Amino acid sequence: MMMKRMSVIIALLLMLTAASVQATDDPHAGGSSISCEQCHITHSALGDILVESTDGLVSTLCLSCHTPGGWVGMTKELSSSEIADPGVSGSSHAWDVNADNAALGAQPPLTGTLLDHLAADGSITCATCHDPHSNSVSPFLRLDNSADALCLDCHRSRDMGSVRTYTGNDLSHPVGATLPGTASYHNPPLDVDGSPQPSDGNTTNDFVLNGGVVRCTSCHGVHKTDSNSGTVDGF
Predict the structure, then answer these.
(1) Which of 189, 203, 204, 231 is the most buried if burial means most Cβ atoms within 10 Å?
(2) Closest CA to 226 of 235, 80, 98
(3) What whole-number distance in Å separates Cα of residue 235 and Cα of residue 222?
(4) Integer Cα distance of 42 and 22 in angstroms
(5) What pTM value is reported for the model?
(6) Host H or E run for residue 178
(7) Angle 201-176-87 (CA atoms, 0-180°, nearest 5)?
(8) What is the distance between the alpha carbons of residues 231 and 235, in angstroms, rounded to a whole number?
(9) What is the distance between the alpha carbons of residues 51 and 39, in angstroms, rounded to a whole number?
(10) d(CA 226, CA 50)
(11) Distance between CA atoms of 43 and 99, rounded to whole angstroms?
């Protein structure tokens, strides 16, 4: 009798624990009807986070919804055809590529929450930057991108405080600099039709000051950019 009573108590405790975990860690921060088992499986899963994906890659799982023809009502659609080939084509930051790429000024991140979510082969995935279980930093970012902190964790070699103009090195616009009010320093930002921003009514491609200074994201976006060079847009 005592053993039976103990078994019931243990079962109840396990149920309470499961309910507590579900309540605090809902997929997509509880903002949708997505359930755990739509992304995770308990047996025969590829990879160490039990993702339900044909190749074990987190990005493959993400793109099963975040892609044209994916989950009904999805507005954040991405396609592999959008992956940027700098200076050539594409409109979104690449995924499933190695985080260490000197030609693009990229190194593996230093912050643990980003580094811990690289793929086993050192590649970045959707989940390197995005946390599907928390939207405390929108849009589901693992690190606050104020002052471009998330971007610069990998692209820290491009964090230039002054213009590089000396012979034998690549030129670089200063980052973190205050935009001078003197007109002789710069021309007013223009839209693609040559008119001053934002006269075309499209604010997504407008020059943006982050914290009052010029940042990487003043000119560059991450997803759904307006040009092949990655100018500001986003979802």
Answers:
(1) 231
(2) 235
(3) 9
(4) 15
(5) 0.74
(6) strand 177-178
(7) 60
(8) 13
(9) 6
(10) 36
(11) 30
Q: What count of residues does the chain have?
A: 235
Two structure tokens written together for 40: 């995770």
How far is the C-alpha of 52 from the C-alpha of 61, rounded, in Å?
7
The owner of tokens 């973190």 is: 176
168/152 Cα distance (integer angstroms): 24
Instruction: Show pLDDT as tens, one digit a residue, over the chain (235 residues).
Output: 555 555 544 454 444 444 334 444 555 645 556 778 778 877 776 666 677 665 657 888 888 888 777 764 456 788 888 888 776 778 889 898 999 998 888 999 999 999 999 988 899 999 999 998 888 898 899 999 988 999 999 999 888 776 655 666 666 777 888 877 656 666 777 766 677 776 666 666 677 787 778 888 888 888 887 664 445 554 4
Q: Are 203 and 196 in contact (CB under 8 A)?
A: no
CB 17 within 8 A of CB 24: no
Question: What are 26's two structure tokens?
Answer: 């809902």
φ, ψ (nearest 5 deg) of residue 101: -145, 90
Buried b (16+ CB within 10 A) or exposed e, 114-150: beebbbeeebbbbbbbbbbbeeeeeebbbbebebbeb
